[in-house]
Each structure stands twice: as C-alpha cells, then as structure tokens.
Request: fold
Amino acid sequence: SHRVLLFDFDGTLVASLPLWRLAFRRTLESFGVRLTDEEVVSRCFYRPWNDVSAEFDAGPPDRFTEGLLHHLA
Reply:
C-alpha cells in the first residue's frame, strides 16, 4: 500500500505571484531593465531563467539567478 500526500504549494497554499513579479522586476532593474508587472508575466514567467537573462542582456545567467533568488528571500 502506498501513502502519498500531494499538494500544490506555490499558488495554492501560498499566493506567490506578487513575490515572483517583484523579484523579477527588481532583478531586471538592477541590470537597467524596467518592465511592468504585465510585461514580467508575459516575458519572464514559464521560461528558463538563462533565456530571460540573455533576452534582456542581464549579465551572466548565474548573476541573474542569484539576484532573482536574493529578491525572493
């Protein structure tokens, strides 16, 4: 017999969308890129972070990722 508990934490138990939008905006702003919340969602969400970093010339992908995670903390 299997005992499994499955739940969707992000967006279900925690309303994280505003936090992710803000983290993307602040990270991109640190590289001189300004986007609206709508632009962040349409151009950054559901994409690999390396691709977002490259599209906006936001430095090396690891710096972009570090910035994003810093702003989520």
